[in-house]
Predict the structure.
Amino acid sequence: MSNKIMRLRLLVTTLVIILITLVTYHATVQAYHKPVTEDMATETSNSAEEPLSLGELRKKYSETFKFRGPEVKQIALTFDDVPDPRFTPKVLGILRKQGVKATFFVVGSRAQKHPDLLRQIHQNGHLIGNHSYSHPQFKNRSVKQFQNEIQRTEKIIQRTIGYRPKLIRPPYGEINEGQVKWAKLNGYKIINWNVDSLDWKGLGKEKVKANILNAVGPGSIVLQHAGGGVGSNLSGSIDALPDVIQSLRAKGYHFVTLDELLHTKKYK
């Protein structure tokens, strides 16, 4: 093969390589400068978003997610983790003696074991809310798991007292956005609180009283417990309850159930 032909072939090869390089470069530039569509922007934004905090969820879903009522001279006392034969009857006795109606958030597994005590809460004129079946931390669970916990409990409650609660209190007050969306879509309200007695810590009477009375105000939702785990000690909370009621009454407050405070139905 002559030198002339070899040089020609080398030239053609070089030109082909240059052409391929130019085409590749052009395609890359076009892709880089392609306008971002709305779908692409949403996808990018969603992938980068952090989960909303409880405060952000309350703000975004203010009609569904409540932690206090209107600023009126009303207060809602709420009691979690019922029914519990060790503590619930004592709380019911105090409320009956004081002429106060409250809201009780029911754990389904306990209601299944103590249906007569659930009926007693209802027959005493108190409002019943849903506190899940097994008391999990919902923020780490799927929407499907949340749904199953709520619906399993409401079936037990409906079978026992005749209605499905509209109000849900997530254990530990924790919940995620997908679960709030599901609750909203299905006509529930999520209820947290703005006054925490911290009675689950086994605090004494005076400390429980201080935790409530120092934080309470118009429209407050107060968290206490009338049930607990193995070894729980709620005697301080129970002993504090009459003083709390009398102190707040002396300041002109009226005690109401959550459906009255929030102007909503108690059942679905």
